[in-house]
Specification:
The protein has a domain at about 10-170: Immunoglobulin-like, CATH 2.60.40. The chain is about 30% helix and about 15% strand. It has 18 helices and 21 strands. Strands 2-8-7-10-11-5 form a 6-stranded mixed sheet, covered by helices on one side. A 5-stranded antiparallel sheet has the order 1-9-6-3-4, with no helix packed on it. A two-stranded parallel ribbon has the order 12-21. It is elongated and about 105 Å long. The protein starts with 10 loop residues before the first helix and ends in a 22-residue tail after the last helix.
Amino acid sequence: MRSSSYGSTSKDSEIGHGFIAKEPVKVENDDFIPVRSPRWSGIALSLSISLGFLVFLSIYLKASAGFTTDPSVLTSANELKFSVSNEYGQSVKGYKWDHIVEPYRLTTLTAILNDDDQEGTYIWVVGDTVSSTKVAYYTFQDVGFNLVNVSWTSLDGETKLSASSQVACKYVRREMRAMTVSDRERFLDTLRLLYDLKTKDGQASYGEKYKDIHYFVKKHLHGAAALDCDHWHDNAGIMTHHLAFTLELEQTLQAVDPAISVPYWEYTKDSILHADGDWESSEVFLDEWFGVASPTSNDHVVTEGRWAYAPIMSDASDYSNITNSYGLLRSPWNTNPTAYFTRYDKVLGNEFYNNFPTCTQFSECIKRPSIAQINECLNGETHGPVHIMIGGQWGSVSSAVAMKEYGLAPQHLLLAKNLWRHGYVKCPDSCDDSSSECKCSCPASQLDTTPYKILTEKTGLLHWIDDSSRAIYFDEDDGEYHIQGFTAEMEAGAWQDILDALCDPGHAGEMYTSAAPYDPTFWVLHTAAERLLQYRRMQADVSPLDETWGFAHMNAASDVGVVCDWSSVENGGDSLPTCTAKLCEGHGATDTLPFSDFLGHGETYSNMQFYDFMEPNNDQILYVYDNFEWEHCESQGVSMDVSVSSSQSIPPPAAV
């Protein structure tokens, strides 16, 4: 198991490892018997440990003499158990472990006797530390397992009882709104630190696990904004990549403050709270949380609160071979010159989503019978819209009429990105000002055939345009696409207009691009998806789950199943890549993930190995989720019970 050796800003971690008295902090020797203290040194350390251990051994041996689980002694009238709790209440339930405690968080250990009126003495032993109170307080530090033993001896010495259990110490990920103010502030403050403290400086202070935000954005860009294909999305590797990515960020945050875990944002709650479309008023967009959902300034920059002017790396070409035309660490097709992360609540002036994914969508997704089908909905409708709602798109005016008339706007950016991968869209190598002339286009030299053939034979884009356009249709008789009411000559002009419209992606907010990790909301989306996936895997005995590696491909503009080989294309040349239907590297079961060393042993993972590693009840998993309850969904008549089909519903509770 990974042991925490990081520096700490945690109040609990300051008290050290072992039993403590909660109030008052200074305790009497009768109640607290430390066997060792990491703060002692030299001869005093050796002498104190020796004497302390003798005291411990004497007490423990006396207390343990006669311990038994013999039913004749452990009668139904008096049985000893114990519970664990902390400021959030009782131990997390739903997993295989009887007791779950959290590292660097004060834990309350409570002895429980059936006959609570019977007086006696208690002895707690955790590792080499002893306490002699009925209720003990202990701060665990190492993620892993700790043997906890409590014994009770009646005052007359006639009855001796004991209870012991291996307690699992794991980080607990909680919903943003369920966190204490202190925990939420620590998470947000430490995440914000990553924008200002560079990797080199952070590692000097906090160790090699520390990485700045630009490291994470670069990693995501190299996976999602590669020229050949998207190595992270729209296929079977979607969840393994993003869950490993989140864990890597979590360990960076823990390098700064070892008590932190990454929360999740259960935005289906917001779909109910803001069902009338005022989703931007969700409390997650308060200045002190994630900042305004859609800034009103022309450059769409958050200017107030914790995330005001959170920077994008500039002059990034020496750091990453993927940048935009201004040298900013952005997607190449996003020619936004603003050096801060941006947000906009519309896509080319349209509001295609006025609410978050709903309980019904979550319920339908989680009841699917295979991991391949669940991968698809976790990639798509259950979380994709949140990226678009927060990121948004603006600034593309090449053919606004064509986008509106032919229904291009909903998928415009995804279609433009496909044209870019196929080599038709070219973006300037560099721009030195914020001129409106700095934009992507389709140079005439790249157009090797007619617009219609580019949109069909070369890229297949009309297939997805047809799916969202009321005007365009496919005629099975002649095997071609047409536009309702248009002559052949009119259609030729329309195909040119459509191609022109797709050649200029305009600008997009970070959440709608491959630089999405710059937006802090990115990090609490995938934890919500993992919680859903964990729940489904744990319910496999209730409703069978086919865990064969795969992805159930759907009709989506981002899911093209094509890999473009650029190896023969000269830099800056006019030749086009060779694009063929094949699996993008990164999505195969045995493909190696670009993440490693989560347990501190230098280990690496294939997709399938990491999928096994993140099995909810895997002893090695480093974290759990606080609960698997969706009471807000049940209150709306939507059941998350996997044994209840999606077509069924439960009646909402009667009004009182």
